[in-house]
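Task: sequence design from structure.
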């Protein structure tokens, strides 16, 4: 943050999926969703089903839904309930909402043993908050990022039930398949994660279908967007959506840089596997926000943060990470890719970094950065500079091989700081111990 299905045989996958150091579960998730929107896309309701597998030796006795859309408003007030509500649960016994109404425990009817599958289903009601945010609105346009509940992850650390972090991301999820049916007024255009198509529905309505394989979340937007579509030289369909008052020069720059970035990073990190990406542009959206196959972009005459957000398709999306525990693994990497794309001069950039104290680490969690908001920029500035310094330390060719190999080894998997440090050390004969210490990477 700065704020699809593929045809058979169309993509040659990298050398297999990487597992986290400790097996994460539940995995091999499939979400089937049907939602219907009101006249202006402010309210959506429908049914969601998720099936999953227990990947661990220990029997799985419960799962947790994360209702991240409640992150800002929490449990709401008597006259203003939480934006995302779940009811009529089947396949398990729901408990009480916890973590400020962003976590719902569902006890399974019987323990799920290793390799076995189960499913839960529930009604979902979504009211888009009246704020300009990743889950919010701007004028006639609605943004539904983190609106759909997703399953939490359990690993050797237990259930990941971290709080919502408004200045960054708290999200940690495993690669999943989504099949989503969005019923909406035909006056609204609906960009969405995955490969999507729209057909006529009831009179005055349309149905947008979207299928996405191996993505970590699903987002959509709705509004009277203007649209354009083009295909990059590498064969990726880039669909652009923008509010009519968005500066035309910024729209042109965003479309140009978005198309070029998707091909550039496909060469550097591995081919973009989803076939389609949607660029959603408005004038006043703050910065940008990444979701698989869809990015939200505040766009001025000078363009937008599209390159940084497209880089997130790899660093968070394809190469996943626990964004609460180690935000540098996606933000620093995406900003490093952004700097390389634009050819910024990063020589000596570390000398310009003001480091707060020896206790602060670039690899700190969102718990630290949320408590020290004025320092959070370091994840972007110092983080990208550290990676540029690593490139100079091991050599440009070695760095390029390292990142492409690392992405392949963690394709649809989960990256950790320990794993990256190990991979980097294996890419050079130099002892990187002093480098990690100098750059506060622990």
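Answer:
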């Amino acid at each position: 943050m700065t704020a699809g299905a593929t045809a058979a045989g169309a993509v040659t996958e990298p050398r297999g999926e990487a597992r986290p150091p400790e097996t994460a579960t539940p995995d091999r998730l499939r979400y089937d969703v049907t939602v219907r929107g009101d006249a202006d896309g402010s309210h959506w309701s429908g049914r969601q089903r998720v099936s999953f597998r227990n990947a661990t030796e220990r029997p799985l006795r419960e799962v947790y839904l994360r209702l991240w859309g409640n992150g800002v408003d929490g449990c709401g007030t008597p006259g203003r309930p939480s934006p995302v509500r779940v009811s009529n649960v089947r396949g398990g016994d729901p408990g009480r909402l916890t973590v400020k109404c962003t976590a719902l425990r569902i006890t399974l009817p019987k323990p799920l043993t290793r390799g076995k599958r189960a499913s839960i289903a529930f009604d979902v009601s979504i009211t888009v908050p009246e704020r300009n945010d990743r889950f919010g609105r701007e004028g006639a346009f609605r943004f539904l990022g983190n609106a759909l509940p997703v399953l939490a992850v359990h690993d050797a650390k237990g259930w990941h039930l971290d709080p919502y972090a408004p200045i960054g991301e708290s999200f940690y999820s495993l690669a999943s398949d989504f099949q989503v049916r969005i019923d909406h007024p035909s006056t609204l255009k609906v960009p969405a994660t995955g490969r999507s198509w729209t057909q006529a529905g009831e009179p005055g309505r349309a149905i947008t279908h979207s299928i996405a394989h191996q993505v970590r979340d699903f987002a959509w937007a709705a509004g009277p967007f203007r649209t354009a579509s083009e295909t990059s030289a590498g064969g990726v369909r880039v669909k652009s959506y923008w509010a009519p008052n968005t500066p035309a020069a910024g729209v042109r720059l965003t479309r140009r840089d978005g198309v070029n970035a998707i091909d550039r990073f496909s060469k550097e990190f591995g081919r973009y596997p989803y076939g389609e990406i949607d660029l959603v542009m408005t004038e006043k959206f703050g910065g940008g926000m990444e979701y698989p196959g869809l990015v939200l972009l505040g766009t001025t005459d000078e363009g937008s943060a599209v390159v940084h957000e497209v880089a997130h398709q790899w660093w968070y999306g394809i190469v996943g990470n626990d964004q609460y525990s180690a935000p540098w693994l996606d933000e620093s990497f995406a900003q490093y890719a952004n700097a390389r794309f634009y050819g910024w001069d990063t020589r000596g950039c570390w000398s310009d970094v003001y480091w707060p104290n020896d206790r602060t680490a670039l690899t700190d969690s969102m718990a630290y950065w949320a408590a020290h908001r004025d320092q959070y920029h370091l994840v972007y500035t110092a983080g990208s500079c550290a990676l540029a310094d690593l490139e100079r330390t091991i050599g440009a060719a070695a760095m390029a091989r390292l990142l492409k190999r690392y992405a392949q080894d963690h394709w649809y998997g989960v990256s950790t700081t320990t794993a990256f440090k190990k991979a980097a050390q294996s890419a050079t004969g130099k002892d990187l111990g002093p480098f990690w210490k100098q750059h506060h990477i622990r």
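Residues 328-438 form one domain.
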